[in-house]
Amino acid sequence: MKLKKLLSLMLVGSLALGMTACGGGDSSSSAPESESSAAPEESSEESSEEASGEEADAGQESEAGEGSGEGGEAAAGDSKALQPFAETVTIKMGHGLDPNTSFGEGESLENSRYLQWLKEDLNIDVQYDWICSNTDFGQKINLCIASNTLPDAMNVGQTQYLAMLKYDQIQPLTAAFEEYASDRLKQYVHSGGDALMDAISVDGEMYAIPAPNLTASGVNTMWIRQDWLDELGLEVPKTVDEVFDVAKKFVEAKLGGDNTIGIVGPASGDQLIAVGQNRWGLDPIFGAYESYPEYWLQGDDGKVEYGSVQPQTKEALAKLAEMYAAGVIDPEVFVRSDALEPVTAGRAGIFFGPWWCGYTVDSVTLDGTQEWAAYMAPLAGDGKFYSPMSDPTTQYVCVRKGYEHPEAAVQIINYLIAYEQDWINEGKIADTSTSAVYPLFNVYDNADEIEYSYEWLKKFNMGEVKKEDIDTTGRKLLKGDLDAIEVLKKDPKDDFSLEYWDLENEIADSNIPRLVSIMVGARPLMEEGYEPIYNAFSGQTDTMATKWANLQKLEEETFAKIILGQAPIDEFDNFVTKWYAEGGQEIVDEVTAAVNE
Questions:
Q1: What pLDDT is attached to residue 180?
Q2: Could you count the other beta carbons within 10 Å of the beta carbon of residue 584?
Q3: How far apart are CA 312 and CA 286, in angstroms?
Q4: Angle separating helix axes 44-53 and 508-516, nearest 10 degrees
Q5: Tell me: the pLDDT tens digits for 114-126?
Q6: Per-residue confidence at 3, pLDDT binned at 50, 70, 90?
Q7: Which sign does the torsion angle of CA 205, 208, 212, 213 carry?
Q8: Overall pTM > 0.90
Q9: Cα(first)–Cα(last) distance of the chain, in Å?
Q10: Using CB atoms within 10 A as the burial measure, which of 231, 391, 410, 467 is most buried?
């Protein structure tokens, strides 16, 4: 990504005017409140489900030594990853704190065990110039950007990262990363490939240390009641019309009772479509028409278009309106308070979401009452499954330009990765969580974690390899997954129907939801394949700062009205005209210029 291209991205309005001081030239950092990669963009209930099963188990397979920090990972060959500074190095930060965060007796944010361990083991003295509520952290950093009073290091989202690049406020981290990053941290960053490196680099220099997003989590597939298909003797639907027909048959047969729902859609507060993972959304139906609402799409000629206003989107909306009118889509779509309720109540036949939706249906899986399976459907007219993808990262650790020890930020991350699981296992952080208190906290994982786990779990389960033949280095949960599938999976090994799991085993509750998520939820990604569609632009332009919120509201209201039959499909044409007239054309021009410079 070229520097001119990045610098053409404009800031939100609050950055331009805010001049409140945020500390001295060497101020500070913390995790922002709204763009964390630690949990999917979904309801709080599902966030806890996913976190318990995947991302919040950070460092489970750490090879570090015991105690607060014995240098286990450094001893394995990372000579400088956890090497203490000869003289104390001070790094100043700010922090966003949940007011409900608990601390051990005698502790506070400024005097936490984490800061004590960092001082004892690495000779890094973390100090906080300011502390604010989690909900105010983003605005606080924005003010620091506007007044050029950045912390020494900070953990920010993409818009803030691009803003700091624009104003030349952060320094390159390539040299510090190459010399000081642990092998584990390097593995995580490199796992994101070119897409992730492009997101953090300018002219070949890294300007941030990213927390990679799981690639698999950006793919929304069709989850369907396999037992209902079998009961009616139906094949797995592949096209939009086949999905429509099967859902209609589910409703007509009243397989979930008088109020059977063919397809569960977004409830109140959920998203119809989104950039990346979107449980309950209807993204795959749009994808079947090669329609990508909310995405910026760049053609071979360099022209950039907004997916929501394209003719393919009109086609998709027309089909959704037809499906809703036929009683196939949930009659309470957009207004239901909780889309999960009809699923767990046994009244729903189909919903869409990522691989981790095995956690969504964990209760009915564990009690053996519902058989859910995942497939790449519906397919487009050319037989392919088109999947809009998430951004490769949403979290960037950056270092203020001029700060003398950027390697200190790298070591703070190394330390978390090396020892967090040891702290969990030894009960050292039971009353004060790392995510709330640890400086520069992110959840670090391999971008290809799920694909890798599926591949090796399948081979091991089928007897093709032994456990000792599988490289689990840096794979936090894979060792435990291998042990669990060995115990819980019955013959035949290649059939993952509920009857072939040992649901009565004492370890079933804590392992089967994850194993089903991988072996059932991730199966179509690996076995059926998909065509990834990437967002060409995720920044913010001048006109977006003042007009984007109204354009989004116009889009959401128009799409909902068309689907619910409250407006004819031709209302889409009026929407497009209005969208361009009320700022859309200016935004398209600005985005096109930004992407092509």
A1: 98
A2: 22
A3: 8
A4: 100
A5: 999 999 999 999 9
A6: very low
A7: negative
A8: no
A9: 10
A10: 410
Structure tokens at 326: 């036929």
Cα of 250 vs its chain's centroid, Å: 32
Task: Give CA–CA dist 321/566, Å, rounded.
Answer: 10
CA angle 198, 204, 207 (to 5 degrees): 70
Could you tell me if 156 and 396 are in contact, meaning their C-beta atoms sit under 8 angstroms apart? yes
Concatenating the DSSP letter of every residue in 180-243 gives H--HHHHHHHHTTHHHHHHHHEETTEE--EEEEPPGGGG--EEEEEHHHHHHHTPPPP-SHHHH
Give the alpha-carbon dihedral of 224, 230, 234, 238, to 10 degrees.
Answer: 30
Nearest CA to 513 out of 54, 151, 116 is that of 54
- What would the pLDDT profile of 356-405 be if each residue is shown by its tens digit? 999 999 999 999 999 999 999 999 999 999 999 999 999 999 999 999 99
Q: What is the pLDDT of residues 8-36, one digit of tens each?
A: 333 333 333 333 335 433 333 333 233 23
Report yes or no: 413 and 212 within 8 Å, Cβ to Cβ: no
Beta-sheet pairing, 348-353 with 221-225: antiparallel
Give me the pLDDT at residue 38, please. Answer: 32
Cα–Cα distance between 405 and 288 in angstroms, integer?
A: 50
Locate tokens 């993952």: which residue? 496
Helices (H) and strands (E) in the chain, counts: 26, 15
Q: Considering the chain, what percentage of its residues have pLDDT values greater than 90?
A: 81
Q: Look up residue 106 and give its amino acid.
A: G
